[in-house]
Amino acid sequence: DQQVKQNSPSLSVQEGRISILNCDYTNSMFDYFLWYKKYPAEGPTFLISISSIKDKNEDGRFTVFLNKSAKHLSLHIVPSPPGDSAVYFCAASGVRGAQKLVFGQGTRLTINP
Amino acid sequence: GAGVSQSPSNKVTEKGKDVELRCDPISGHTALYWYRQSLGQGLEFLIYFQGNSAPDKSGLPSDRFSAERTGGSVSTLTIQRTQQEDSAVYLCASSRRLASYEQYFGPGTRLTVT
After folding, report:
1. Do A89 and B106 touch (CB under 8 A)?
2. pLDDT tens digits for B38-64?
3. I need a surface site. Which of A13, A59, B96, B104 has the fewest CB within 10 A?
């Protein structure tokens, strides 16, 4: 049972344009959501997070939007330099702390020059 | 400061052999997590530690998998009688405390069972 889903395995975006990555979840008990970025042969690195009591969080070039009624979140990256090419994972955490993160399958973002 | 380190970075083993994977968390981080990523899949939670105890072992895929943590620091994940389906990248993460949502990951150990 995939509780966190990233339905787009890959996404290509022109350099300098906005990248929008999407994530859906099924468990309404999730109360915290995170985005991680992963380069080949490296571990994931934390990008940005959002609590379920908010609908938007912004940090520099990264903005995460949460739509609880639709159980959907998205990550907006503006602008998108070539260095942003990586695999992006959406993750969710349950009530009472992050004993574990439930990850989506990841979306490979390619920024084209 | 130093991040999470894992060793070995790559491990090739024959089916049926035992393997040990090591994780050194960030100094001072009390919580430690193990995940694995199979080819084309997302990260799958295996086990977490708060200090030296592991309250939740439900993510371990079989009784061939075990993990321990000593001194509230280094952790070892052991896989006995390895099978080909154990081939994956095994990732360790740590956080300042158990309820801290931001986990810091190591580079992983790529395990290949032949």
Report:
1. no
2. 987 889 999 999 888 887 788 899 999
3. A59
